Give the backbone structure.
Amino acid sequence: MPVPNATTLTLDLVRRALRQPLPGLAAQIAMAPPERPTALPPNSTPPREAGVLLLLYPKDDALHFVLTRRTERLGSHSGQISFPGGRREIGDVDFAATALREAHEEVGIDPASVEILGELTDLYIPPSHFVVHPVVAYAACAPTFYPHDGEVAEVIEALLALLFDPAIKGAAPRALVSQGLREVMTPFYRIAGHQVWGATAMILSEFEALLTTLVTSGSR
């Protein structure tokens, strides 16, 4: 079967993929630790909601996306690799507005330069009691990033085609808050010298599955 690469992963392919039914939880859990809670606990308080931005852009003739490494002062997810994004505020008309506002605040992305392509399946985050809504977008030119000193320790640019290289996937024991700090073998992507795990890896896993299905189906 054909495997997506830098040549086949075009903006048109992404557009067509996002018009297909989403693979959802079944694809997300491919990069989740065993027994990870995936639903709200019974009788829990309403979760907080957030929007994150999976921004695609051309660089060196291939689609890339951007991640950030959070600073060590940001609560339960400090130091982790994540998409630009954050909590929805009252003035946000939708989760795309949340993701764009937060991406502007965190890494200086101009919302006017971004085209919203679609959304992926939302995802519950047990340690912080958030439901995250991933928004896929495209910038016609590679952005110049201006990381916020208080929130972003590092901007990480990654080639989209790397997601489909089996060699970048691994697993390692990790003490997880969602499982009472018990050490659990946790899947991750190796990206730019970092282990990308947790919700970010699960979102990337669904996006990977969505694109792979379209390519292997022989869609034109």
